[in-house]
Amino acid sequence: MDRQGDFWSDANNDCVKMYSVGNPANKYDKIRVLVGDYIICEDDRSYVKYENLWLSYGGAHGIGGANTHHIIVKDCDFSYLGGRILPGYGNGFERYHGVGPMREYVLGASLFDLKKPEKEIGRLKSPLLIPNSDEREGYVPNVVYSCGSIIHNDDLIIPYAMSDFASTYATVNLRELLVELKKSD
Fold first, then answer.
1. Which residues sit opposite 54 in a β-bridge?
2. How far is Cα 29 from Cα 183, in angstroms, rounded to an integer?
3. How far is the C-alpha of 142 from the C-alpha of 121, rounded, in Å?
4. pLDDT of residue 103
5. According to the model, what pLDDT value does residue 145 have?
6. Measured distance CA(125)–CA(144) in Å, rounded
């Protein structure tokens, strides 16, 4: 890497390095990297300030980590976080939470073009997961909440919390889900 904008991706260590003469924010309007985890991992870091960043299309939270303190985030824009790349399917998959009537938290899904991650290919017309009658009562009622999913064979397995009192999982056929997502535009 010896020219402005050259970059290198090390998937084994979850890092991308980019060469820049000076602050890259002064050279570029946007820098896009699609990651499958935190965009910025703050494990064991302290006294760090993030300012004027646009963090989008990450597989988990925009900034996350453990054993941190004195982290300042100022004037940053976070969007389209929590999605995953679907291996072999060539698309970015986004699960998100929404709140419906009577403070009912549900899980939705969208599909994005990996080459143009700002382009949504499709979105489910109805929620992917809704609290059922057994999941409506608890410490926080009417809530299904998931922080991840697992692809096993052709199924998407979604572990989730039920009204903050128990955990379970749902299984969705991935091919059927992709068909629904693609015809929902």
1. 77
2. 33
3. 29
4. 67
5. 72
6. 18
